[in-house]
Amino acid sequence: MADAKPVSSHAALYASDKPALIAHLLLLALSLAPLVINVPTNVNIVATAALAVYAGSWRSVKPAPPTESMTKKDAMRFPIVGSCVLFGLFLLFKFVPKWIVNALLSLYLGGIAVFILTSAILPYVLDFFPERIQHMEIALPRIKVPHVFDNSDGSMRPTVPELILATISVGFCGWYYAKKHWFANNMLGLAFCLEGIEHLSLGSVHVGLILLGGLFFYDIFWVFCTPVMVSVAKNFDGPIKLLFPRSGVLEDGKRPFAMLGLGDIVIPGIFVALILRYDVKRNFRSKYFRSAFGGYVAGLAATIVVMNVFQAAQPALLYIVPCVAGAVLGHAWLARELQPVLSFSEAAPEEEGKEKEGAAKQAGEAVREESKKTQ
Predict the structure, then answer these.
(1) Which residue among 3, 127, 150, 264 is the active-site one?
(2) CB 3.0–4.6 Å: which of 61, 257, 343, 367 could bond 16 by disulfide?
(3) What does the alpha-carbon distance between residue 24 and residue 166 come to, in Å, rounded to a whole number?
């Protein structure tokens, strides 16, 4: 369970609760709207993804820097690891009955979704609980569910509000996995997005650009060069994508939907959030967040336009990455602040030290090897 924190923790640097709260309310309203009215699908996709990035970015603004962040090596390995996982899922769907794969993955994601949904909601409802029980802890049984839940050491002591919200989350996840309703799918998917953008840190702008560059080519390859990405997205019946109802004729008796993968929100979203924290650190003397966020909206809109023109699936990062990175770097170049922006880092000191120590060790080994050769 997430640690109970006062809702005002964000406001120590800036009134970030207000923009995040407004974005959450708009996001909820936009998610509910298709249940009662026809919302243009393309507008819905862009607005939902933009609000998720905006809300997640503001949620990430905290007084203390992140305790863990991605390193340069992590960023370089990420596309390779992602490719292995994606291709592994493709093979599973190809050689194992689809319902078995989805059942196992649903069980795994369902356990995680309870924690994610609880953590996503908690900061905005905590103040509605009586103050005397807001931080009252309850000891959980010492049990372990491999890869999902581990309290064998008794260290997990959730608060009363967390337990209440977790119970509601269990019911909501149960409804989703029983009915597979697109609204429930989107609520869980958005919770994953918000928590991912809030808690994942790239560490530095330099590392962020490496990650975006690697995933730019990853997305192009798996969408344009193989059927793998599209096949997995269509076969995977879980909250790894957002579904947007289309108006028109039913397909095989079912309502047609447009899809947007969570990666197309979270990956650029964590970079946009990093740029917002850079602005916060400079007391908003710069406006790079506006450029980054505007670049994301423009890149996603370009994806939709090209998709409609060619009537084919598009790798969203092909358009989003150049727009986001180009907007930030172009802004920095025009402001003559390219070097300060590129050198911005919020990685924990010990992580930076480990990375430098590893680089120094590799350099030392290279020198020793070279000296052996010369001898």
Answers:
(1) 264
(2) 61
(3) 20
Note whether residue 284 is domain-resident. yes
219 annotated active-site: yes
User: Are 124 and 7 contacting, i.e. CB atoms less than 8 angstroms apart?
Assistant: yes
Identified catalytic residue from 219, 237, 252, 279:
219
Residue 362 lies in a domain: no
Closest CA to 182 of 118, 249, 246: 246
Model confidence band, residue 348 (pLDDT cutoffs 50, 70, 90): low
Beta bridge partner(s), residue 245 = 257
Query: Residue 185 corresponds to which amino acid?
Result: N
Q: How many domains does the chain have?
A: 1
Q: How confident is the model over 127-170, as pLDDT tens digits?
A: 888 888 888 888 777 777 776 667 777 777 888 888 999 999 99
Least confident of 30-44, 253-267, 344-358: 344-358
- 227 belongs to a structural domain: yes
- What is the CB-side half-sphere exposure of residue 33 using CA atoms within 13 A? 18
The 3-state DSSP class for residue 241 equals strand
pTM attached to this predicted model: 0.83
Q: Which two tokens stand for residue 160?
A: 């009363």
Distances in whole angstroms, Cα of residue 44 to Cα of each of 31, 204, 256: 9, 32, 14
Q: Is residue 364 left, alpha or beta, with left meaning phi > 0 and alpha meaning psi from -120 to 50?
A: alpha
Strand, coil or helix: 286: coil
Which of 361, 31, 366 minimizes the C-alpha distance to 188? 31
Report whether 302 contacts 319 (CB < 8 A): yes
Is 252 a residue of the active site?
A: no
In a domain, 351, yes or no: no
Q: What is the mean pLDDT of the chain?
A: 83
